[in-house]
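Hey team,

Filing this mostly as a record. A colleague (T.K.) asked me to run one chain through the structure pipeline before their review meeting, and I want the input and output archived in the tracker in case anyone asks later how it was produced. No errors, nothing strange. Just documentation.

Input sequence:
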Amino acid sequence: MGIFGRKRRTEGGSAGRHAAPGADDTIEDEAYDEDSELSDVSDGPFDVADFEDDGVPRIDLGSVKVPVPDGSQVQVEMDPETQGVRAVHVVTEQGQITVSAYAAPRSGGLWREVSTELAEQLRADGAKVNIGRGVWGLEISAIVGDVALRFVGVDRPRWMLRGVIAGPQSEAAAAVEVLRGIVRRTIVDRGDAPMPVRTPLTITLPDAVAEHIAAQQQQG
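Output structure:
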């Protein structure tokens, strides 16, 4: 696992940053499973309270513990205004992966709301958007210029996990499996404090990574 540098923005970090010409598709009702807002919990991602150690190497980011595949690197994106951590990315040969967790209702259903808004924003920015079903339900794929994006979301009681990979179109088929593999093995630690729905769960860096970034900042 390699740790390097600071990044101020990412291709897959925000739908509002993309613009490219292309057709779009609407979200069809059949893309959703009305009978089950919460996906099966037996195959991950896992709540920290239910997880048993499996020996998989993960980077501990506080609210999420994310697996880091062999040969990949970890990249920290800093907020230029607050100098706080905006996101942490796992960079693989197939693309850059970002996993984020949010407070959610006990009954689930947040990913449906978020994915609808995300698809609409991507289309408004000119991306070509396709909606389909994947391992946990709805998945969004989008083409933005030369970049292929894939979004997955997983609803659990009290939290939602969102994963996205951004990479070259030539790697799109392999990229989705890499993304699913990382999401499946991610552990979420929501904590017990009450939070408004959609609140991003706080990211904290391991001491070694935080010290490395602090040293870089001091060096300018």
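Quick notes for T.K.: The first strand starts at residue 2 and ends at 7. Residues 1-36 have pLDDT under 50 and may be disordered.
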